[in-house]
Amino acid sequence: MKRKLIAALLTMAMVGSLTACGSASAPASSAAPSEAPAETEAASEAAGSEAAPAASTAAASSDTETTYDTTNKTGRKLKFGYTCMDGTNPFFVTIQNEMKAKIEANGDELVITDPGNDVSKQISQVEDMLSQNLDGLFMNPVDAEGIAPALDEAKTAGVPMVGFDTQVADMSYLVSYTGSDNYNAGKVVGEDLVAKCPDGGDIIVLDSPTMQSVVDRTNGFLDAIDGHGFNIVAQQDAKGNLEEAMGIAEDLLQAHPDVVAIFGGNDPTALGALAAANAAGVTDCKIYGVDGSPDIKAELASGDSLIAGTGAQSPVSIADKAVEIMYKVMNGEEVESTYPVDTFLINADNVADYGTDGWQ
Description:
The chain is of the alpha/beta class. It has eleven helices and twelve strands. The protein folds into two domains: about 1-35 and about 180-315 and about 350-355, Rossmann fold (3-Layer(aba) Sandwich), CATH 3.40.50; about 45-180 and about 315-340, Rossmann fold. Helices cover about 35% and strands about 15% of the residues. Strands 2-1-3-4-5-11 form a six-stranded parallel sheet, sandwiched between helices. Strands 7-6-8-9-10-12 form a six-stranded mixed sheet, sandwiched between helices. Helix 3 runs parallel beside helix 11 (about 315-330). The two termini are about 35 Å apart.
């Protein structure tokens, strides 16, 4: 049964349902695109998940393109390693492909691994890559604290690490970091929920406490809805995975069939919750994610989905900035400790501005 639901979801052939939040609904709020200062995304993660950052909620103008200098000036072929928490997540697939294209365009090599959300496997894979005489390593940890042994190995080997999307617990291991303003990504969808459900109600939160990016998103979401009449009836770890989220949501919706909203820490989690809600015949619930993936945007554009919004980010911008940082390090240039990339709300009101056939 679950396999059929997943297949149906991934082919976008699910039965749509109503998106009202009871009788008390307000018009959706949307962030108008505007130019933002040179990428403004990971500032919240740099500040930690405890405090709210002063981040922009608007998207960078689609008419403005940022130029990234990814030139290899060393005069020799370079070899880099790449590790992310889940190589099957479309967000990371996009980052991986973009990095690979940029690096190979220089005649350099990117060694790619996928630990499948297993930190022990990630540590082992990093150790194996380090044995291949890497010049640099792109790091996205499964577990911000649990990855420490691999960071120690890289430090001992003298291999510089550029973090992306998710921070490690001790940022001193990294020469630099680039990623989304994850706190703001959760905050903007929380604000959208408050606007659409001003009377509040019971909600479900599907997070992932070992993933710092999801922790920050969840904190932003919870801060945004605080004091607005919402009651969290369940909060569980969906591990950022569609199938995991679907199974959890199936059980939770049986226990709490009248929830007005579900927050997922990323878009795969939201899509898993959507599959469960559709299978259960739920017609009065708003589901939010974070990513801005093509699948989520297609749901928003359909006009008949329970998906209500997503805190959008740009994996292409993150990949390009990470590669630029790495080449600056290779070329002996100075780099900043953090390069943030903006996040913003996409909902049914503005999804047409971003399209559904790719990432923004």
